[in-house]
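ingest -> validate -> predict -> emit
validate: passed (alphabet ok, no gaps, 477 aa)
predict: started
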Amino acid sequence: MAPADTPAPAPASASASASDDAAVPARASADAPAPARVPVPAQAPDPASAPDDAAVPARASADAPAPARVPVPAQTPDPALGYLAVFRVREFRWVFGAHLLSLLGLVVSELALTVLVYDLTRSPLLSSLTFALGFLPYLLGGTLLAGLADRHPPRRVLVVCDLICAGAVALMVLPATPVAGLLALRCAVAAVAPVFQGTRMATLADILGDGDLFVLGRSLLRIVSQSALLAGFGVGGVLLAVVPARGAIAVTAATFLLSALLLRLGTARRPARAAETREGLGATWSLLRDRRIRGLMLLFWVPPLFVVVPEALAAPYADELGVSTAALGLLMCALPVGTIAGELLAGAVLRPATRVRLVAPLLLAGFLPFLLYALRPGPALAALALVLAGATGAYTLGLDARFVAAVPEERRGRAMTLMTAGMMTVQGLGMAGAGLAAEFVPVHLVVAGAGLLATVILAVLLATEGRDGADRHMTSR
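emit:
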């Protein structure tokens, strides 16, 4: 299934950007693909030559209308190229490189900070709390700070977020920083993460257009995030074998600085999306009051809530079976491997309209492999079930297309920040809930029960979202 586009405080898991068309098409129904926007020909200004204050219209006051946004050119993807078409967009290559650097920095810093806190306190509780704190501030940052993604120029938001992360990580390196300070700095990094990811996702729509290039660009960032789960901790482990924990953290500060530099030099200057600069939580709640947007948000949020259950309980399940640590590693890797394979296949082979039609079938089928756990399978069969469940995470490509078509352009950054924050928050809740349930019920039954409950909830949400989409389609005629 699909995490946020970055892993815990991270995911995807962000993103590609869309052209700013003047006319907004009628929103698609739940059963039909989002209508394609008319492609806008042209190419974004050379990012390297666009200073922050160059040719930028003055920001509108609360009483004045927003200045017209200059349409940002999108490229029409060649279906034969698939993911290669995304890399033909120069600005995306810079964003992709920055994403890779910040992601590696995040994963390695999480591991190194956990080791550092344990070395200082010898407390397993504080060590695990260090990792858990990566989830909790997502809800705070994603709600209170979501408006920043639309109220300020996106490049500025992205660069400042990276610099905040670099500064926080640099303070962690100082020997004088107490454990409480380390935990507070960890929260600071996690709080700005949803703003960074939401802004990047909305900016991808400016860079790539809100058509299939955006969907494939988002998919690539998620694939990198999933790969980081497999490789990032390995890189961190090797690094910690060579340098002390504080040294590894210092390396990650450099990755955040390099990410900021790439975004500053490689992305174009764009004005803020929202003309109103004083919008607060009311604008966030207005998004959730829209039935169409709320239904799509829930379809993004529910799968991560349950998909983390077998991963959170992998160690207890391996212990229940009495298998080796190698088998535990197999169980931990199975879901990300399936997710990567499913996204690559769907992005490279399926047409955009087909991906949209497959959203509901993939969501409903995604948790059925969890039911196999009711039979208490061995590690090989359990890993196969997790690979199959992960492969159905390709539903996110079609869901991305629906979401970007449903959200007004001036609210896009806020909506994507809120969506990202929700995905990460529910993962933390899912892990905690799985552990609590396993205190009273055998682990294999907890996983099977999670699969059954997720399937029922998703069936209800899909039926509701389908009716809302159909109603919206009828009223727009």
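Residues 6-77, 473-477 have pLDDT under 50 and may be disordered.
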